[in-house]
């Protein structure tokens, strides 16, 4: 137990240290994390709100919650494909538990997500959006999503080290997922003939688990079912990878 706490402290320390180094010698420091997300959200909300003729008092919070949720998921998955390769020197020279790297990356993006929550709160307060007790669901839902991300990240990191074409391929597919995920448009506007694309899209369900409570709503039950099945499936894949292949990562990086 003491060893686990030690490694968790390690993950937290180096996650914060990495963010500090990224914002070193900056006048605004950590504030850039909030500011960059805020500017991005404003731009998207104003442009697509005008294109879709949306009521900004409703559309703005929807975009805000969707963007910060998408940034959490896509940012982590994108970086996870290069995780072991970018830490090759450490992996080859030190005997850290291999899960440490995925944990550090996850903590880094969780910290960025929490800064995004600040933006969401600002939007809610400014526009006077009503929230409910359903907003408390964001805590267990976030835990579920983080569990999926942790498992997916370890599998993705291994595949990225074993197959060097995996990382750029994922980068391209992430962009396609962005287009077919209800982030800057609402699910009800998607053609019903192609609704199956949304049903099999994991980002649709994971973002719903995070965005709905941030807007004071309860997520779709199907999103919970999909997330639990996805977690179990990824856990099985991770188990197979760890049991047979993960010890060989040092030779792949």
Q: Tell me the radius of gyration.
A: 19 Å
Mean pLDDT: 86
Shape: globular
Number of domains: 1
Query: DSSP strand (E) fraction?
Result: under 5%
Unreliable stretches, pLDDT < 50, 5 or more residues?
none
What is the number of helices?
12
**Number of strand elements:** 0
Q: Span from first to last CA?
A: 30 Å
Largest β-sheet summary: none
The SS-based structural class is: mainly alpha
Helix content: over 70%
The sequence of SSEs as H and E is HHHHHHHHHHHH
Mind explaining what this structure looks like?
With 253 residues, the protein is mainly alpha-helical. It has one domain (2-252). It is 75% helix and 0% strand. It has twelve helices and no strands. The protein has helices at residues 2-22, 31-51, 56-80, 83-86, 88-93, 99-127, 138-162, 166-179, 195-199, 202-214, 221-244, 249-252. Helix 3 (56-80) runs parallel beside helix 7 (138-162), helix 3 crosses helix 10 and helix 6 packs across helix 7. The radius of gyration is 19 Å and the shape is globular. The protein starts with a helix and ends with a helix. The mean pLDDT is 86.
Q: What keyword list fits this structure?
A:
253 residues, globular
SSE layout:
Layout: H1 2-22, H2 31-51, H3 56-80, H4 83-86, H5 88-93, H6 99-127, H7 138-162, H8 166-179, H9 195-199, H10 202-214, H11 221-244, H12 249-252
Helix pairs in contact: 1-6, 2-3, 2-6, 3-6, 3-7, 3-8, 3-10, 6-7, 7-10, 7-11, 10-11
